[in-house]
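Suppose a colleague, Dr. K., hands you the sequence of a protein chain of 232 amino acids and asks what its three-dimensional shape might be. Before reaching for any lab equipment, you can write down a predicted structure in token form. Begin with the sequence itself:
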Amino acid sequence: SKLAVSRNANSEDEVSDSLLNLGLFAYPVLQTADILLYKATHVPVGEDQQQHLELSRDLADLFNRTQKKNIFPLPHHIITPAKRILSLRDPTQKMSKSAPNPKSRILITDDYSQIQAKVRSAVTDSTPSISYDPENRPGVANLLTILASCSGSSKSTAELAQEYSSKNHAELKADVTEAVERLVGPIRENYRRIRNDEAWLRQVSNDGIRRAREIATQTMDQVKHQIGLGPL
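The predicted structure, expressed as tokens, is then:
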């Protein structure tokens, strides 16, 4: 969970209930509001967010059935073949920007040397060969998953592991670094270019705010009219 990650705990059992706060419980409701307000039909989420999306579907369906009218579309999740990328420093936890160790994650703003250093320091195991075994070798399996995802290979992660069966950890990490850089490098350069154009960013932001308000207003007016409140 997010709380376990923030406390650097291995599982939720190691976290005291006294540390729970409203945000952890309110988040799924706020996420649902964001999805339904803009009548999203497809939502890209990680594996751990699928249950939150189910709440969105349940509430949309409940409202539609109660009002006997399809006001909200039932959102579907979009998930990549790499459902969960794990921490480079603790492959029992997902990779998260909230984790205290910056070496546990790769950012789109990381340059080549930073990516290389993080991948080189990624936790693996003492077995010299390469195999895909998420349960017993989570660190190596995670690197293979990253490699398969970033290289765009049509091969499964298990098939890719077969090709690396005679290689060592250093060779795998070197290839992971190059694959990540090929994917992230152009994104990083575009980010830097766009980030320096503040006038354009302000224009895009203002246009987005205007469009978001228009859609939100239309949805709320429709909902209020449907339940008999009318526009305020």
